[in-house]
Design a protein that fits this description.
By secondary structure, this protein is mainly alpha-helical. It is built from 15 helices and 3 strands.
Length: 278
């Protein structure tokens, strides 16, 4: 909503400006370095990775959804993304501005915190199911349900960066496909353009076929430029640079003062802090 308002009116969200910077950062690196926000930066993605690796230690392996179930489940995150996009695009500029200036929005981060600290039975059951399925299946939330992952994946389709395989030197060991957290057929494709690829480079690290057999390559950049260290460094520098620029230009810190925040926190259970939507 903040980005739509900014594009249409030039008004920057002063209540949660950092959220706009982080979403812009996710979109920017997706357009340039594939879905690497998910693979290198997202804390939920990190938690998901820890869970399936823990599950592999507990059960000795991770399991895969059958193809007939995997495909429709993967569409869920795009349906969720479509719902949010439709909701935001159907809102007028005045409606968005009213929401962004509402008492609820000023305390929405605390409301999200309460979602976990004041957990309902339904919330607990859903989170428990997500944790258990994440132990068994690799990146269950990211693969099937995350609308942000759907957005970054679609943006990554425009990225000049992708995994490329040299079929002449490939020894067809299939290690790349086995290690891929999203079960992509890396061993059968000359290049991976799937919106599921998060640029983790795990496949390139296990490839025994020579230095140019499997690599993350950006169009116009010399071969074998990217390594996991370089990619991680570039992502960190880009993020720090954006945050620093946003800070010195006044686009990072909230306009809600500490005094106002403390007052609103004391009255957060009052009716005006319920979600204004229908």
């Amino acid at each position: 909503m903040g980005w739509k308002l900014f594009v249409l009116t030039g008004i920057w969200d002063s209540v949660h400006p950092a959220a706009m910077i982080i979403l812009g950062f996710a979109g920017l690196i997706s357009l340039t370095l594939r879905k690497s926000f998910c693979g290198w930066f997202c804390p939920v993605g990190t938690l998901s990775e820890w869970l399936w690796k823990l599950g592999r230690k507990i059960f000795g392996r991770n399991y895969r959804m059958p193809v007939w179930l995997d495909l429709p489940l993967r569409s869920l995150k795009y349906l969720l993304l479509g719902f949010f996009v439709w909701t935001i695009f159907s809102m007028s500029r005045l409606a968005i501005l009213a929401f962004l200036r509402s008492p609820y929005y000023k305390m929405s981060d605390v409301k999200m915190l309460f979602f976990f600290t004041r957990m309902s039975t339904t919330t607990f059951v859903v989170l428990a199911i997500l944790v258990l399925t994440s132990l068994v299946f690799r990146n269950f939330w990211c693969r099937y349900l995350c609308p942000y992952g759907a957005l970054t994946g679609l943006l990554a389709l425009l990225s000049p960066t992708r995994i490329q395989r040299n079929s002449d030197t490939c020894i067809e060991c299939k290690l790349c496909s086995e290690v891929c957290p999203y079960h992509l057929p890396v061993d059968r494709k000359d290049r991976i353009i799937s919106p599921e690829c998060n640029g983790c480079m795990d496949c390139t690290l296990v490839c025994p076929g020579g230095k140019n057999t499997l690599e993350l390559k950006t169009i116009g950049v010399r071969k074998k430029f990217w390594s996991s260290a370089k990619l991680g460094f570039v992502i960190i520098v880009l993020y720090v640079g954006l945050v620093y620029t946003a800070t010195i230009t006044g686009h990072w810190k909230t306009s809600v003062s500490e005094q106002e925040f403390r007052i609103r926190l004391q009255e957060i259970n009052m009716p005006q802090y319920t979600h204004p939507g229908g």
